[in-house]
Design a protein that fits this description.
Strand order of the largest sheet: 10-9-24-23-22-11-12
Structural class: alpha/beta
Distance between the termini: 27 Å
Bound molecules: iron/sulfur cluster
CATH architecture of the largest domain: 3-Layer(aba) Sandwich
Number of domains: 4
CATH class of the largest domain: Alpha Beta
Number of helices: 28
């Protein structure tokens, strides 16, 4: 049995187990899954008739896999040894087979009748949806309806939804769950380079001489990338790993240096690292002279002003702010500077803060300042949480402020370009951004948003301050398309539309490194489930807007999408379905069908969009220069008080996925608990809390009951739990304060109380 404290399995340490597992073809990275031997023996269970190339549907690592079929069913999966993941899959990847046949698949459309959801025909359900949307648009205008999408839809689906709403219905009320996870890096990259998405790639992990991992528990949340980093450590053992995280995570456990900072103090820390760079004379002067400008907000600054700003962030001053030693800051700076090629990796820990954009921009600034950019192993690289939040949502412009390929709603020329490309009259696209995620749910609350279509996501559990927004959802006419029912969102729906998932429909995902790769349709969906693309096309026809969507199959939509891209710096016209079916995906830019794809953007000779013969060309900006923005550390959004004395932060564990609508239904993964709250031993002793005791964790917004797990992982005064549990919803407590630039909510910091309770009975209105 797994030992929670030591992470060992039947006498094997986790590391030993991984070593053993890797001896087999197609390494499987298994987590704490109860009886590991039982799970291991389940692979494979039935003879496979044919193997097909595909991609994992879970995290943004985007692992390639082989999918085994037998008599029209997926009966096995294994890592694709020709893909970037080198044949490896983590435990969630292995479960791609089982998710199709998990309990609670939504099989038939449902309509709410007398307060209950009852089975209906597709025609009745879609007629009702179209009728209610039409009524709202005619009576209250097109901005009375909206769409809330997902980084788990295929690119073709997100692109189609955005086009239908922005160019057909004529509302920019198009947003989705990528706002909750990746908006801050999207704004950070765009602010600095003029274009979104990282410039590096996974290949950089094979060349880095130092890793700075900040705000990312890579070992659990992107485990196959963690293994690739470990490959580098195995081949070059002197490669240091620096981890910045308020928790002593599995990632931090293997670090050479762990900076266990107070949550929300990242801006001070990165300023201090840059202070050390400048103090040591390690700034890359050629880089700064040729390729960088300085700004504070809209105001131009120079290097002297930047140096002056940094003087407030000496390690001695910052140590107290961050709760770490000045010496550790100096050591981190030294390791970063002296490596020759440092790769920084980050994700939600930076993104989900009120200073999310500032944190992202300072990490990128550290790379610009030191010249650690555009060379193998020298890059700054954000990891995406979902399989298609980048290429599917950020790049297709399926957010309330954006249009395809980096265009913006606010820029008139961008609107005109898209109107031409979409063949709609000039002036069709409205000139102001629509509701971003939090505002969309507030608009449901106020009654301004009358109807919403929600696809492949679960805001009834994932929105911060959930109690408030669950009540808001009850006020709107809510249409929820999902592969599973019940979820914490379908329970509020007026209409539930059952959807096919993963290998039951074909389409394209894009992973963290700009790799577009194809998932084939291999099996039929259960019951009457349909693809989200099929639903959108049907919806458009019933609204009388079918002409907006001439492309009606995944392949036809992809053709439209790749053709549009050629008029932008994202150009991937050369990525055809034919190529993707043969190759293990391609990284854009990729302008022609004989182009191999681009590993490192902005590097002349490597990136086809970059011009000249110099070291770099930041072509997304008119002057070819990237910007180092000056940011100061601000106070927390909600400091602890006597009534709410703890800082709560939330995250994930290896074996579960997001709100558990999928992984929570798999027997093997269900055994790994998610309804715990980590408490530091000193706090537990002070409050007389015992292991496994039920406690209420609550803020002034709400809370839920969790089981105490006393561990030294967290800092004193801090609590951690996951947002996975369908029954214990921590987002009742989290804050809906958001970054003022990216509008991404600050899930990583709110003030809470913890107190023993006598019962663990679930709240009545949550999925049980
Ligand atoms: Fe799937 Fe991510 Fe695991 Fe790879 S690391 S198998 S993409 S969940």
């Amino acid at each position: 049995m797994k030992n929670e404290e030591t992470d060992s399995f039947e006498g094997l340490s986790r590391r030993d187990f991984l070593r053993l597992a890797s001896l087999g073809s197609g390494m499987v990275f298994l987590g704490g899954c109860g009886d590991i031997r039982e799970l291991w023996q389940r692979q494979p269970v039935i003879a496979v008739d044919s193997w097909h190339k595909g991609v994992c549907r879970f995290c943004g690592t985007g692992c390639g896999m082989q999918i085994g079929l037998h008599e029209g069913k997926v009966v096995d999966v294994r890592g694709d040894k020709y893909a970037h993941n080198r044949g490896r899959l983590c435990i969630k990847g292995v479960m791609n087979r089982d998710i199709l046949y998990a309990p609670d698949r939504a099989l038939y459309p449902m309509i709410r009748n007398n307060g209950k959801l009852v089975t209906a025909s597709w025609d009745d359900a879609m007629s009702l949806v179209a009728e209610r949307f039409k009524d709202a648009i005619e009576t209250y205008g097109s901005d009375s309806v909206g769409y809330f999408g997902s980084g788990q839809l295929f690119t073709e689906e997100s692109y189609t939804a955005s086009k239908l709403f922005k160019a057909g219905i004529r509302t920019n009320n198009v947003d989705g769950n990528p706002r909750l996870c990746m908006a801050s890096p999207a704004y950070a990259y765009t602010g600095i380079f003029g274009l979104d998405e990282p410039m590096g790639c996974y290949d950089d992990m094979d060349h880095a001489n130092c890793f700075l991992i900040t705000g990312s528990n890579t070992a659990e949340c992107h485990p196959i990338l963690w293994e690739r980093i470990q490959d580098r450590i195995r081949s070059r053992p002197e490669t240091p790993i620096i981890v910045v995280d308020p928790r002593h995570t599995r990632t931090a456990r293997d670090a050479d240096l762990h900076l266990q900072i107070i949550p929300g103090t990242d801006v001070a820390l990165y300023n201090s690292l840059m202070y050390e760079v400048v103090r040591r004379g390690a700034a890359d002067e050629e880089m700064l002279a040729k390729f960088v400008t300085f700004k504070q907000g809209d105001e131009n600054k120079d290097f002297e002003a930047f140096r002056e700003h940094l003087s407030n962030y000496s390690p001695e001053k910052v140590a107290a702010v961050c709760g770490i030693s000045a010496e550790s800051i100096r050591e981190a700076a030294y390791l970063f500077i002296s490596s020759g090629a440092t790769m920084t990796i980050w994700t939600m820990g930076l993104n989900q803060q009120v200073q999310g954009v500032a944190s992202n921009q300072l990490i990128i600034a550290l790379h610009l300042l030191t010249g650690n950019i555009g060379r193998p192993g020298a890059t700054c690289f954000s990891l995406t949480g979902q399989p298609n939040a980048g290429g599917g949502v950020r790049d297709t412009g399926a957010l309330s402020h954006s249009l395809p390929n980096g265009r913006k709603i606010l820029v008139p020329e961008h609107r005109r370009e898209m109107e031409k490309l979409w063949n709609v009259p000039e002036g069709t696209i409205k000139p102001t951004p629509g509701y971003h995620a939090v505002e969309m749910f507030k608009a449901m609350e106020s009654g301004e948003l009358k109807c919403a279509l929600i696809m492949a996501t679960n805001p009834g559990q994932s929105m911060p301050n959930t109690t408030r927004y669950r009540a808001a959802m009850e006020k709107a006419f809510l249409v929820v398309a999902d592969a599973f029912h019940p979820t914490n969102t379908t329970i509020f729906a007026d209409v539930v539309l059952p959807t096919s998932m993963w290998a039951e429909k074909g389409g394209v995902f894009s992973n963290s490194e700009r790799r577009y790769h194809h998932v084939p349709k291999l099996v039929e969906a259960p019951g009457e489930a349909r693809s989200d693309l099929n639903i959108l096309v049907d919806f458009a026809d019933r609204l009388g807007l079918g002409h907006i969507l001439p492309a009606r199959t995944p392949e036809a939509v992809w053709e439209e999408w790749r053709n549009i891209s050629q008029y932008s710096y994202y150009n991937f016209k050369g990525i055809t379905y034919e190529r993707m079916k043969k190759e293990r995906g391609l990284l854009w830019p990729c302008p022609t069908e004989d182009h191999p794809g681009t590993c490192r953007r902005y590097v002349p000779g490597e990136d086809p969009m970059a011009k000249g013969n110099d070291r770099l060309d930041f072509y997304g900006r008119p002057d070819g220069r990237a910007i180092i923005f000056i940011h100061n550390q601000q106070g927390p959004p909600e400091p602890p008080t006597d009534d709410y004395p703890f800082i709560l932060t939330t995250g994930r564990v290896l074996e579960h996925w997001h709100t558990d609508t999928i992984t929570g239904r798999l027997e093997e993964l269900e055994r790994v608990p998610v309804d715990f709250v980590e408490v530091h031993p000193a706090d537990a002793q002070r409050l007389n809390l015992r292991q496994d005791m039920p406690v209420m964790v609550r803020s002034n917004r709400g809370g839920d009951v969790f089981r105490v797990r006393i561990v030294e992982k967290t800092r004193e005064g801090m609590l951690f739990t996951t947002f996975h549990s369908m029954k214990r919803i921590i987002n009742h407590a989290t804050t809906d304060a958001y970054d003022p630039i990216s509008k991404q909510p600050a899930y990583k910091y709110c003030a809470v109380a913890i107190e023993p309770v006598s019962t663990t009975k679930p709240a009545a209105d949550e999925v049980s």
